[in-house]
Amino acid sequence: MRETPVTPVQVTGTVLTTRRVDAYHALTVVAPGIAERFRPGHFVSVAVGGAQTSTLTRRAFSIHDVKPDYSGTVEFVFTVRGPGTAWLAERRARDTLDLVGPLGRPFPLPRDPVTCVLVGGEYGSATLFTVADALQQRGCRVDFVLGAASADRVFGALRARRMGETTTLTTEDGSLGLRGRVTDVLPGVIADVRADVVYACGPMPMLRGVTAVAVEFDIPVQVAVEERMACGIGVCMTCVLPVIGDDGVTRMVRSCVEGPVFRGERVRFDDVGTIPFDALGAPGGGSRNVG
Amino acid sequence: MRETPVTPVQVTGTVLTTRRVDAYHALTVVAPGIAERFRPGHFVSVAVGGAQTSTLTRRAFSIHDVKPDYSGTVEFVFTVRGPGTAWLAERRARDTLDLVGPLGRPFPLPRDPVTCVLVGGEYGSATLFTVADALQQRGCRVDFVLGAASADRVFGALRARRMGETTTLTTEDGSLGLRGRVTDVLPGVIADVRADVVYACGPMPMLRGVTAVAVEFDIPVQVAVEERMACGIGVCMTCVLPVIGDDGVTRMVRSCVEGPVFRGERVRFDDVGTIPFDALGAPGGGSRNVG
Amino acid sequence: MSVDMRTYLGHVELVNPIITAAGCAASGSELAQFFDLGRIGALTTRSITMAPRAGRPTPRMAETPSGMLNAIGLQGPGVDAFLERELPWLAQRSVRTVVSIGGGTVAEYTALARRLTDAPGVSAVEVNLSCPNIEDRGRVFARDGAASAEVIASVRSVMRYDVPVVAKLSPDVMDVVSVARACVDGGADALSMINNPLGMSIDTEAMRPSLAAVTGGLSGPAIRPLAVRCVWQVHAALPGVPIIGMGGVLTGRDAFELILAGACVVAVGTALFHDPYACLRILRELEELLAARGFHRLADAVGLAHRPPGASTRHRIDLEESSL
Amino acid sequence: MSVDMRTYLGHVELVNPIITAAGCAASGSELAQFFDLGRIGALTTRSITMAPRAGRPTPRMAETPSGMLNAIGLQGPGVDAFLERELPWLAQRSVRTVVSIGGGTVAEYTALARRLTDAPGVSAVEVNLSCPNIEDRGRVFARDGAASAEVIASVRSVMRYDVPVVAKLSPDVMDVVSVARACVDGGADALSMINNPLGMSIDTEAMRPSLAAVTGGLSGPAIRPLAVRCVWQVHAALPGVPIIGMGGVLTGRDAFELILAGACVVAVGTALFHDPYACLRILRELEELLAARGFHRLADAVGLAHRPPGASTRHRIDLEESSL
Ligand SMILES: Cc1cc2nc3c(=O)[nH]c(=O)nc-3n(C[C@H](O)[C@H](O)[C@H](O)COP(=O)(O)OP(=O)(O)OC[C@H]3O[C@@H](n4cnc5c(N)ncnc54)[C@H](O)[C@@H]3O)c2cc1C
Ligand SMILES: Cc1cc2nc3c(=O)[nH]c(=O)nc-3n(C[C@H](O)[C@H](O)[C@H](O)COP(=O)(O)OP(=O)(O)OC[C@H]3O[C@@H](n4cnc5c(N)ncnc54)[C@H](O)[C@@H]3O)c2cc1C
Ligand SMILES: Cc1cc2nc3c(=O)[nH]c(=O)nc-3n(C[C@H](O)[C@H](O)[C@H](O)COP(=O)(O)O)c2cc1C
Ligand SMILES: Cc1cc2nc3c(=O)[nH]c(=O)nc-3n(C[C@H](O)[C@H](O)[C@H](O)COP(=O)(O)O)c2cc1C
Ligand code: FES
Ligand code: FES
C-alpha cells in the first residue's frame, strides 16, 4: 500500500479574485491549509453548484499558483466545459468555495541542475510555472514549449517568455507561434537545448506524443495525466489507467493518488480506455490468481 | 370545464429590491406581464435553486403588492421553511427569478359598499392589503384582524392601522396586541363593526376557525387556502382538498386553479387530508359511476 | 436548420416527437392557456378509469433530490365524463390525443377500450399497466409479463385496427425486456417507458411518511438513468418496435439522449410542473441539437447510440438504417 | 445531548450506526488520512473476489442528476492480497470491518467465506448479491430469491457462528420483500439495501454510451426514495431483522430518514466522494437530530415511522418497542 506523501485537507475557502485570461477563467481562493502543503503538480478538487446542487461529484483542477497572502491562497485556471465549470465561472470575490487538496503525487524534481523542457497544452500549461520555479531554484535550466488550438487558448505565453531560456509556441490554426502541435517542434527543442528531462501537462494525445519523442531521445519524461475523476482521493476507482509497474506488471492504477504524474513511458497510452489483456486481473488474463 | 379567468405568463424577472420585515423576507421583482394581469388574491410560483438545482418543483407565494414602476413589479413576502425559501432569502438585487403568474382565482369583491373584516395569520396578512385597497375603492369599510405566534411574525400591522377603520392584533405569546388567536377576537370585531363579509388568509386551522365564526354570524367568508403544490397551474393534481360544489356534491378540487380562494363554508376543513366517503369518486363510495 | 421532425407510432404520424406524459397534463385545457396544443406531437391524457375517482388523500406530493414523489391515485372524471367533455374539447382543436387507460382487471381495461373504439379523436391508446390487479392480490400488472400480455391482447382485440395500442412499462421489474417482449407478443404496437418506480420519503420533522399513501411514484431527472437504460435494453432486443421514452426529460439534450437510446417519441411529464412551456422549449432545443449535428431527419437519430464502436454517424445516416 | 448511539448487527455491537458502503472506501487507508476510522461504526470493504480483478475499462463514471453511474467492475487485489495486506492493516487499527464478498458461483462465494473464517478482524460478512451468476446466463443473483438464498445458506454454513452474514439486496426486482425473506430463510442474520439500480447515460456529443461498460450502477441522492421504500417494505415485513440502509445518504437528516424507515445501521457511499469527512459529519448531524427530538437511544428511533397514525412518539419510546 502506497501512502500519499502529503495529507490533503478540506477547506471552505473564500474567493479572493476572479479573472479572465484569454479563453480561461482563473480563481484565487484563500485556502491556507492547501497552500502550505502544496508542491508543484498537485491538484485540488472543488465542490460545485452550491447547497441544493444536483451535481454531486467534485471537479479536479491543477493548482496554477500558491501565494502567501492571507496566510495562503491557491489559484487554478479552467475552461468552461459543462455545468460544473459554468458554475465556477460565475463565482465572484467573497463567495466561498469548498476545496480538497492538495491532491495527487507532485512532479519529482531532479537532484542535479539539469536542463528541462516543460511542455504544456491548453490549460495544462498552468501547472508548469510552479514546476519551473522549483527547477530554477535548484539551478536547472528551463525551456518552454506551449501549444493549443488557437492563440487565445495558449496559457501563460508571457510568463513562459519571462521565465524560460527559450519559449516555443505552437497553435493548430497558426494564430500564435508556429502552426502545428507541440510534438512537431519538441524534437528540435530537445536537440537544441540538449534537454535532460521533459515535463508535460496537457491533453492525453499530446502526452502520448510527448512521451514518444522523449523515448526517442532516451530522456526521462514526467507527464501529468487527466482522467475522469469522481473523488480525487483514491476511494472511487473511476480514474484508473494502465501503468507498468517497477516489476514490469501492468496494473490499472488510480491517477488521483498514484498520479496524476507518471513517468511517461510507464503509461500505456495506446491502451487507455481498455483493460489490456496482460494487466493484473484482466478478465480471463494469465495473471489470475497472481497476488 | 372551468376556465381560469386570467391567463398566466412565465417571466424571467429581475429582482429589484430585497428587504427584511421582522421575521419575513420580501422580494420585489420586475415582472410586467404578471403585474398587469394581477387581481387581489392571485399568487405566483417561483423556480428555485438556479440552473443545476436538485429542487425541481416551483414554490407558491401570494402576491403582496404590485407597482407600476419599471412597467410593473410584483412583491411577495415569505418565511424561510426549507431549501427553496432558504435559496430565495439569498437573492440579491439584479439577480433574475423565474416566475409564473398570476395564478389562481382572486378574491371576489362585493358590488355594494359593505363592511368587510380582513383576517390574516402569519404571512397570510400579506395578501390582504391589495384586497383592502380594492374594497376601499368600491367604498367598502375595511377592518383588520391580524395575528401570529409572536410580534415579529405579525405581518403588516402598521399598514393595517393606516388603512383599516380598526385594527385588532393578536399574538399567541402576547408580545403584541391581545394574547390569543384571531378567532378569539373575531366575534367581537364582527359584532362591533356589523360586518357583512369576512376575507381571510392564513394557516389552515385559522381558516377553519374563521369560517366557523362567520358561519355562526351567518355572513359570507372568503378564505385563501394553502395546500402543497407542485405545479400551480392545474396539471399535477397534488393540491386538492374536499370542497362542496353548487350541486351539493363534494369533489376533490385543485386549490391552485379552482382556488386558492373558496367560500369558507364550502371547504370541508375537517376532512382535509382525507377523501371523504361521500366525495365524488371516493373509493367504494356510493357516487361511483356518477358522471 | 430544417430537420424533418415527423415520427410514427405504428401507422400514426406525429408532426414531431414531443408529447406530454400521462397524468401530467390534466385535461389539456390547462396547458392550452400557455401554448397551442397542436404544436406538439400529441397530448397524452391522464389514465382514464371507468368510474370517476377521487384519488388519494393529501399530501400527494413530496420533493426528492432532482425528482418528486406523487401518489395521485388516478384522480379523474371517469370515462363517461371524459368522452362527454374532455375528449371532444381536444378533438375540436385537432389535438392528437393518446388516451391512457387504467383498470383493476383485464375486463375493466377491455371495457374501457371498447368505450374508446368509436370515439372520434383517439390517436392511440396507452395502457397504463402500473395499476394493481385486484384479481392478483393487488400485484401491479406491469410487474408480470403474462398479466401485462393478457391485458394488451384483450385491449388490442377490441380496438380499431388503425389505433395503435401502446403498453406502458414499469422499471420495477427484474427484466424489462421480458415484459416488453410479452406485451409485443400480446399485440402491442408500441411500448412506452418508464412509468414511475416506487419510492418513498419520510418527513423527519413529523417522523411519518411524507405522503398520505406512504409510497408513491418517483419522477423527474433522478430517474432518467433508469429510463435511458430501459429504452436502450428494449430497443436492443426489439429494434423494430416504436418506443415512447420518458423519465426526467427537462431539456432537448435529455430528449435526444432517449432518442439515441432508441425512443422515436419522447414524453414530458414532471418538467411540465416546472415549466408550462417545457414541451415547446424541448422541441426547439432538440431540433437545434439535431441540426447542429447535421441530421436531416429525426428518424436517423433514433437508436443511433447502438451503432457498433467503429461505425461513424455518417455511415448510419447514409445507409438510412433508421430503426423506424 | 448524549444519545446512546450503539447499535447491533446480530450480536456484533457497533459504537454507532454510520458505516461506509461497500466499494466506496477502497482499502480504508485512503480515508484514514482524513479521520480516525475507529470513530465510525464500521468500514465496509470493497467486494472481495477470489482472483485479483482489473475491473472495467474507462470511462467508469458519469454524473447524473443528483447521482452518478459507476461501472467499476469490482476492481480489487483478490482475496490473497486482501488477507495479506488490507485486512491486517484494518485489524491492527482495531477498525470494525464488514467484509464484502463477490462471486460468480455459489461455490466461489463459499470458498471466499471459507477464506475469511479464520481471518482475524472480520466483524461481519456482507454478501454482494449483485454479481452475475455465471451458471445462470449472467443473471444477477440478487434478482432471484432462490439463487440469493442458496448463496446465503452456503456462506452461512461455512462462516463462524459469531460472524453475522449480511445479504445485500438490489432494488431491481419485482418484490424486494420476497428476496429479503428468501435470504433470511436461507440464514441471513441481517440485510443490507440498496445496491445500485442499473442505469445508463448517453454522451450526446459523442452519441455513444457514457460508460465503456454501457450500463452502470446508479447511486447518490437520486436513489434515496428507492432506498427508503425498500427499507420500509422489508422492515414492515420482517421487523426483527437488522437492516443496513444505504442509498444517497448525504446528511444526518438522510440517515435519520432511513433509520425511521427501519434501518439500524446506515452506510454512506457516494457522499464520501464529495466529502471525505462525510461519515463523521453525518454521525454528528444524526446525533444532534436525535438529541433535538428528545431521543436517549438511537435504538428507539429505528423503524419509528411505522407506528400507527394515532400513536405518539413518546408512547413508542416509553414502551421501548424498538425493533432491534
Ligand atoms: C488532475 C486533473 C487536473 C485538471 N486540471 C484542470 C485545469 O487545471 N483546468 C481545467 O480547465 N480543467 C482541468 N481538469 C479537467 C476538469 O476536471 C474538467 O474540465 C471538469 O471536471 C469538467 O466539469 P464540468 O462540470 O464542466 O463538465 P462535465 O463534463 O459535466 O463533468 C461531469 C463529470 O465528469 C468529470 N469530468 C468531466 N471531464 C473531465 C476531465 N477532463 N477530467 C476529469 N474529470 C472530468 C467531472 O469531474 C464531473 O464529475 C483537470 C482534470 C484532472 C483529472
Ligand atoms: C397559494 C399559496 C400561497 C402561498 N403564499 C405564501 C406566502 O405568501 N409566503 C410564504 O412564506 N409562503 C407561502 N406559501 C407557502 C410556500 O409555498 C412554502 O412555504 C414553500 O413552498 C416552501 O418551500 P421550501 O423549499 O422552503 O420548503 P420545502 O418544505 O422543502 O418544500 C418542498 C416542496 O413542498 C412544497 N411545499 C412545502 N410547504 C408548502 C406549503 N405550505 N404550501 C405549498 N407548498 C408547499 C414546495 O412547493 C415544494 O414543492 C404559499 C403556498 C400556497 C399554496
Ligand atoms: C403527478 C403525476 C401523475 C402521473 N399520472 C400518471 C397516469 O395517470 N398514468 C400513467 O401512465 N402515468 C402517470 N404518471 C407517470 C408519467 O406519465 C411518467 O411516466 C413519469 O412521471 C416519468 O416521466 P417524468 O419524469 O417526465 O415525469 C404520472 C406522473 C406524475 C408525476
Ligand atoms: C463507485 C462505487 C463502487 C461500488 N462498489 C460496490 C461493491 O464493490 N460492492 C457492493 O456491494 N456495492 C458497491 N457499490 C454500491 C454501494 O455500496 C451502495 O450500495 C450504493 O452506492 C448506494 O449508496 P450511495 O448512494 O450512498 O452510494 C458501489 C457504489 C459505487 C458508487
Ligand atoms: S478519482 Fe476516485 S479513485 Fe481516483
Ligand atoms: S399544484 Fe398542480 S394541480 Fe394544483
UniProtKB/TrEMBL annotation, chains A, B:
Note describing how the cofactor binds: Binds 1 [2Fe-2S] cluster per subunit.
Annotated organism of origin: Streptosporangium minutum
SUPFAM superfamilies named in the record: Ferredoxin reductase-like, C-terminal NADP-linked domain, Riboflavin synthase domain-like
Pfam families: DHODB_Fe-S_bind (PF10418)
Lineage, highest ranks first: Bacteria, Bacillati, Actinomycetota, Actinomycetes, Streptosporangiales
Keywords of the record: 2Fe-2S, Electron transport, FAD, Flavoprotein, Iron, Iron-sulfur, Metal-binding, Transport
Names of the cofactor(s): [2Fe-2S] cluster; FAD
Superkingdom of source: Bacteria
Domain FAD-binding FR-type: residue ranges: 8-109
Name this protein carries in UniProt: Dihydroorotate dehydrogenase electron transfer subunit
UniProt: FAD binding residues: 59-62, 84-85
UniProtKB/TrEMBL annotation, chains C, D:
Gene3D superfamilies, A to Z: Aldolase class I (3.20.20.70)
Primary location group: cytoplasm
The protein's annotated pathway: Pyrimidine metabolism; UMP biosynthesis via de novo pathway
Subcellular location: Cytoplasm
Residues annotated to bind FMN: 128, 168, 194, 220, 247-248, 269-270
UniProt keywords, alphabetically: Cytoplasm, Flavoprotein, FMN, Oxidoreductase, Pyrimidine biosynthesis
UniProt cofactor note: Binds 1 FMN per subunit.
InterPro entries to which the protein is assigned, alphabetical: Aldolase_TIM (IPR013785), DHO_dehydrogenase (IPR050074), DHOD_1B (IPR033888), Dihydroorotate_DH_1 (IPR024920), Dihydroorotate_DH_1_2 (IPR012135), Dihydroorotate_DH_cat (IPR005720), Dihydroorotate_DH_CS (IPR001295), Dihydroorotate_DH_I (IPR049622)
Cofactor (UniProt): FMN
Any one GO biological process: 'de novo' UMP biosynthetic process
Binding-site positions, substrate: 70-74, 128
Active site: 131 (nucleophile)
Cross-referenced Pfam families: DHO_dh
HAMAP family (UniProt xref): DHO_dh_type1
Name this protein carries in UniProt: Dihydroorotate dehydrogenase
Organism encoding this protein: Streptosporangium minutum
Gene from which the chain derives: pyrD
